[in-house]
Specification:
Elements lengths: L1 E7 L2 E7 L9 E5 L9 H10 L1 H14 L7 E5 L7 E5 L11 H18 L4 E4 L11 H18 L4 E6 L2 H15 L3
Parallel strand pairs: 2-7, 3-5, 3-6, 6-7
Antiparallel strand pairs: 1-2, 4-5
Helix pairs in contact: 3-4, 4-5
Bound molecules: ligand AR6.
The site of ligand AR6 has 25 residues, from helix 1.
């Protein structure tokens, strides 16, 4: 597993190259859609790895409290995955950047970390939320997300944040942004 880590104030942040469904952490964050219905990309991979009980749990949540608005987060068990919890969040769909996309992406990261803290998750794995199907430019998403991750290590009991990156381009983009913000790994 290729990885790069930084020791920051309040904990550690690691970039990982690989499949998030294999992460041995307390909580895995899912880049879901508002109907929590499963889908493609990382959402599909997480549903396949967790098994059909995950969809049932998601459907119960939507039946009880409605769809999940972008920028919010909700937690289910991880079922067949190594992770104890799955934190489902919905990132913004990119419409050019002037429709509140950065605020919504920030909120998706902040609310996911708040959910992790509320469930006593000390280690958390994130995908690159919104940078696939939802079209958010990877470098801008990385810059914003890394800032929030660093702030959250100070502000929550979360001690380790792993960002799982799929593919070489995504890895290079995040590595460059993290090096800019935190120095050499
Ligand atoms: N592990 C880690 N990262 C992955 C994996 C994996 N197994 N698979 C894909 N990625 P996306 P979004 C990366 O499209 O943009 C779904 O259909 C991928 O390369 O999964 O937030 C949902 O149901 C990309 O860098 O999420 C929603 O409808 C990143 O994960 C919609 O897509 C996010 O890409 C959400 O779109």
């Amino acid at each position: 597993m290729v990885r790069a880590c930084w020791n920051l104030d309040g904990g550690a942040l690691c970039l990982m190259q690989g499949d998030i469904t294999t992460a041995r952490v307390d909580a895995v964050v899912n880049a879901a859609n508002s109907s929590l219905a499963g889908g493609g990309g990382v959402d599909g991979a997480i549903h396949r790895a967790a098994g059909p009980q995950l969809l049932e749990a998601c459907q119960k949540i939507v039946a009880a409290r409605g769809t999940l608005p972008p920028g919010q987060a909700v937690t289910t068990p991880g079922f067949d995955m190594p992770a104890r919890h799955v934190i489902h969040t919905v990132g913004p769909i990119w419409h050019g950047g002037d429709s509140g996309e950065p605020e919504t992406l920030r909120s998706a990261w902040v609310e996911s970390l708040r959910e992790a803290d509320a469930h006593d998750a000390v280690t958390v794995a994130f995908p690159a939320i919104s940078t696939g199907v939802y079209g958010y430019p990877a470098d801008q998403a990385a810059a914003l997300a890394l800032e929030i991750a660093a702030e959250s290590l100070k502000a929550t009991r979360v001690e380790k944040i792993y960002v799982y990156l799929h593919g070489e381009t995504s890895w290079q983009t995040w590595l460059a942004e993290a090096t800019k913000q935190f120095g050499e790994p």
